[in-house]
């Protein structure tokens, strides 16, 4: 199971939000410095989100993210503000391992197939951000339907993996909600990366045992509730 430290970028700074709310941002500083810290501690992949893009300003932070990708030279999955096939293609062309399609995948499902056909399914991750079992888009402001139904649709369209973010527990540092993850894994054959609430090595082990392919560490990692070495050990232990 892979561990993805999150590097969420807002106004050029590394931040962590609570429940996706911009006004509840904790600022941590230089994104590149944090990315390097996680790599030094053993990460071999990063989960990078352009929060300004998610909130509607797709071009903001673009130069910073390009530089981060060039400097780290590790697997980077990128989301936030990818609103067109051209946006996705541009990021994939400069070395992003896979793009996370959230609002675009829901608004224009055919874009998933188009990008998968051109670049390969393994480079397309469909975002299943759910609150109360409903997919939420547009910065988690708008409900768009049952999360399991959307997951199956994304699989049919050619996505190579799913990012499941449980908005109900995201950023609260109070642990995961395992049942929605299990239901998703049962509903699809795609690899699932889980995000939201991962706050302890026990959470990582529970996700590993449930069958997820990866877990994103965010608020609890930055707050020191869980360390990256402990998470890696839990993910890879027999």
Automatic annotation (TrEMBL):
Catalytic machinery residues: 8 (proton acceptor), 129 (proton donor)
Entry keyword set: Amino-acid biosynthesis, Cytoplasm, Histidine biosynthesis, Isomerase
InterPro entries found in the cross-reference section: Aldolase_TIM (IPR013785), His_biosynth (IPR006062), HisA/PriA (IPR023016), HisA_bact_arch (IPR006063), Isoase_HisA-like (IPR044524), RibuloseP-bd_barrel (IPR011060)
Gene Ontology terms: biological process: L-histidine biosynthetic process; L-tryptophan biosynthetic process
Pathway assigned to this chain's UniProt record: Amino-acid biosynthesis; L-histidine biosynthesis; L-histidine from 5-phospho-alpha-D-ribose 1-diphosphate: step 4/9
Protein EC: 5.3.1.16
GO function terms (MF aspect): 1-(5-phosphoribosyl)-5-[(5-phosphoribosylamino)methylideneamino]imidazole-4-carboxamide isomerase activity
A cellular component term, taken from the record's GO annotations: cytoplasm
Superkingdom of this protein's organism: Archaea
Group of enzyme by EC: isomerase
Principal location class: cytoplasm
Location relative to the cell: Cytoplasm
One matching Pfam family: His_biosynth
Reactions listed under catalytic activity: 1-(5-phospho-beta-D-ribosyl)-5-[(5-phospho-beta-D-ribosylamino)methylideneamino]imidazole-4-carboxamide = 5-[(5-phospho-1-deoxy-D-ribulos-1-ylimino)methylamino]-1-(5-phospho-beta-D-ribosyl)imidazole-4-carboxamide
HAMAP family listed in its UniProt record: HisA
The family this protein is said to belong to: Belongs to the HisA/HisF family.
The protein, known as: 1-(5-phosphoribosyl)-5-[(5-phosphoribosylamino)methylideneamino] imidazole-4-carboxamide isomerase
Source organism per UniProt: Methanoculleus taiwanensis
UniProt lineage: Archaea, Methanobacteriati, Methanobacteriota, Stenosarchaea group, Methanomicrobia
């Amino acid at each position: 199971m892979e561990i993805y430290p999150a590097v969420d970028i807002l106004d050029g700074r590394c931040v962590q939000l609570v429940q996706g709310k911009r006004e509840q941002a904790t600022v941590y500083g230089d994104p590149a410095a944090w990315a390097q810290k996680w790599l030094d501690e053993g990460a071999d992949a990063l989960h990078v989100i352009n929060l300004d893009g998610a909130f509607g300003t797709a071009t903001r932070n673009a130069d910073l993210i390009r530089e981060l990708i060039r400097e780290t030279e590790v697997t980077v999955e990128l989301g936030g503000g990818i609103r067109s096939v051209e946006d996705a293609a541009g990021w994939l062309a400069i070395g992003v391992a896979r793009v996370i399609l959230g609002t675009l995948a829901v608004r224009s499902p055919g874009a998933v197939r188009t990008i998968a056909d051109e670049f390969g399914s393994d480079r397309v991750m469909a975002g299943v951000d759910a609150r109360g079992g409903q997919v939420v888009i547009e910065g988690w402001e708008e409900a768009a339907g049952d999360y399991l139904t959307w997951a199956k649709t994304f699989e049919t369209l050619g996505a190579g993996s799913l990012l499941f973010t449980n908005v109900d527990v995201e950023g609260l540092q109070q642990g995961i909600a395992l049942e929605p993850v299990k239901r998703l894994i049962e509903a699809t054959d795609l690899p699932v990366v889980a995000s939201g609430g991962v706050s302890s090595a026990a959470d990582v082990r529970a996700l590993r045992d449930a069958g997820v392919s990866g877990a994103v560490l965010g608020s609890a990692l930055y707050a020191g509730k869980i360390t990256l070495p402990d998470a890696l050990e839990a993910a890879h232990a027999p």
